[in-house]
Design brief:
CATH topology of chain A: Transcription Regulator spoIIAA
Largest interface: A-B, 18 and 26 residues
Radius of gyration of chain A: 13 Å
Radius of gyration of chain B: 29 Å
Distance between the termini of chain A: 28 Å
CATH superfamily of the largest domain in chain B: PPM-type phosphatase domain
Strand order of the largest sheet of chain A: 1-2-4-6-7
Number of helices of chain B: 10
Structural class of chain B: alpha/beta
CATH architecture of chain A: 2-Layer Sandwich
Number of helices of chain A: 4
Distance between the termini of chain B: 55 Å
CATH class of the largest domain in chain B: Alpha Beta
Number of domains of chain B: 2
Helix content of chain A: 25-40%
Oligomer: heterodimer
CATH topology of the largest domain in chain B: Phosphatase 2c, domain 1
CATH superfamily of chain A: STAS domain
Strand content of chain A: 15-25%
CATH class of chain A: Alpha Beta
Order of helices and strands of chain B: EHEHEHEHEHEEEHHEEEEEEHHHE
Shape of chain A: globular
Largest sheet of chain A: 5 strands, mixed
Number of domains of chain A: 1
Shape of chain B: elongated
Helix content of chain B: 25-40%
Strand order of the largest sheet of chain B: 2-1-3-4-5
Structural class of chain A: alpha/beta
CATH architecture of the largest domain in chain B: 4-Layer Sandwich
Chain lengths: 113, 370
């Protein structure tokens, strides 16, 4: 499995370590894994991009789906340790208006609690 | 990929278990003890292949096969008879009724496995050919057959979709004589599904544009309406798209555009090359997203270059992607060329370790002649 999920002390938040790539090869898996967490009650997702070299439009689409799923439940999707390639995609699509960014996972956790 | 499912129909308990055990290593296997049970299993879920005994209580193999032939959902399921009846007559009867293969007991399990493989592969090839055909058909419909012909301008377009590519789209219309709207976009996702959504999306854009032109000429207003449609329509809920809408008035050399998170255009001019910077958010994320019109005037001898992400995501020797910076570096060489898009693409490929592009390529070049 390419995604590592870690619970936080806060029941409603989950950390997702994205790994090297989120693209057309594993976007469906990302969707499934996150949907399962939403069913279990997770509302806030902290995506850790520190290792991520590839984020393509299919991968981005899967993050958008997650956002569309949790935002009506007052949930949030936030980005942490955003790598340069991910930053380029976020800039291009102007999605920083929707996904708050934090320098570290810890900073994101603090802001969400 | 999901495993193929096989239905084993056999009344003898030991053989049924044996087959289930051996086939389960590669396939999703379900079993039935006679024809009637088999029909129940098939009713629950249609298998990819059926292996059936002939002599069984209640409903035998021939009756099962005949029943499956009655319905179009089940008629084409690959069917292998497995039986002790080695006589030529039942073999011929089986072949006549549309059985794909026939194996007599005692049989070699390896032989059975290889026949299963062959039949399933045939189904897979048919499926892939069909997908490719539908995909090509969608790709063609997502692209225009003609381009505007305008004096003192060159309008060039290039599109090379991959078989397993995504949902790039390009369209244009001339709502009033001499004024043009261009739509360039990318519906997120890959494969047939993305193409299908791109196709539906383009239909929305066309309809919205048509309705809007009665009371507004603003690309940003069009963007707002398309975004709202995406957010409200349940059918399009999983659809996200980047979109660039440009209104072009060749008489005044003015372009008014709104950009929803699409790759930013580049203005290539004799005086210098620059990114046409202003853009707003991708469509399908925020109901209240705001979009803004931006104007630019094309100087004599300049070209406006627009494209989708396949171009900037191509890798170069050294490992980095082309990126916007790469376009800024390479596009000026294409200006004044006979085939500006070919010139640009060739330059990119010369600097790439690959001989071809690894994603769909869509490039639009609008050049005002000196």
């Amino acid at each position: 499995m390419s995604f590592v999920l870690e619970p936080t002390s806060d029941q409603e938040s989950v950390i997702v370590r994205i790994g090297k790539a989120l693209d057309f090869r594993n976007a469906a898996e990302f969707k499934t894994v996150c949907q399962e967490k939403v069913r279990e009650g997770a509302r806030n997702f902290i995506l850790d991009f520190s290792e991520t070299g590839i984020l393509d439009s299919t991968g981005l689409g899967s993050i958008f789906s997650l956002y569309r799923q949790v935002s009506p439940l007052n949930g949030q999707v936030v980005f942490a340790s955003v790598s340069r390639p991910v930053q380029v995609v976020v800039q291009l699509t102007r999605t920083y208006k929707v996904f708050r960014q934090f320098p570290t996972v810890e900073a994101a956790q603090e802001a969400l609690t | 990929m999901a495993r193929y499912s096989i239905l084993v129909v056999e009344d003898e308990h030991t053989l049924r278990r044996l087959l289930e055990y051996r086939l389960s290593k590669q396939y999703h296997v379900r079993t039935a003890a006679n024809g009637e049970e088999a029909l129940e299993r098939i009713n629950e879920e249609i298998p990819d292949l059926i292996i059936s005994d002939i002599m069984m209580p209640k409903m035998d193999g021939f009756a099962l096969q005949a029943e499956l032939q009655q319905h179009k959902d089940t008629r084409a399921i690959p069917f292998i008879f497995l039986t002790a009846k080695a006589d030529e007559q039942s073999r011929l009867k089986g072949m006549r009724t549309g059985v794909d293969d026939y194996i007599t007991k005692p049989f070699d399990i390896e032989q059975l496995l290889s026949r299963i493989d062959r039949l399933l592969e045939r189904t897979k090839i048919f499926q892939e050919q069909l997908d490719a055909r539908i995909g090509q058909d969608f790709s063609r419909k997502l692209m225009p057959k003609t381009l505007p012909q305008v004096q003192n301008y060159r309008v060039v377009f290039h599109n090379s979709p991959l078989e397993h590519g995504g949902g790039d789209l390009f369209d244009w219309t001339e709502p009033e004589p001499g004024v043009f709207f261009f739509t360039i976009g990318d519906v997120m996702g890959k494969g047939l599904q993305a193409k299908f959504y791109a196709f539906s999306f383009l239909a929305y854009v066309r309809t919205t544009l048509h309705a809007m032109l009665q009371d507004s000429k603003s690309p940003a207003e069009l963007m707002r309406r398309v975004n709202r449609v995406l957010m409200q329509d349940e059918f399009m809920q999983e659809t996200f798209a980047s979109l660039l809408i440009m209104r072009w008035d060749p008489a005044t050399h003015q372009i008014t555009y709104a950009n929803a998170g699409h790759c930013r255009p580049v203005l290539v001019a004799p005086q210098g090359t620059e990114v046409v910077a202003y853009s707003d958010m991708v469509l399908g994320l925020d109901m209240n997203a705001e979009f803004q019109d931006t104007n630019l005037t094309m100087p004599p001898g300049s070209a406006l270059l627009t494209y989708t992400d396949g171009l900037i995501e191509q890798h170069l020797i050294g490992g980095q992607m082309v990126g916007e910076q790469g376009i800024l570096d390479m596009a000026p060489r294409a200006l004044g060329s006979h085939e500006p898009i070919d010139a640009l693409l060739n330059t990119v490929l010369q600097r790439s370790p690959e001989n071809e592009f690894s994603d769909d390529i869509l490039v639009f070049w609008l050049e005002r002649q000196v």
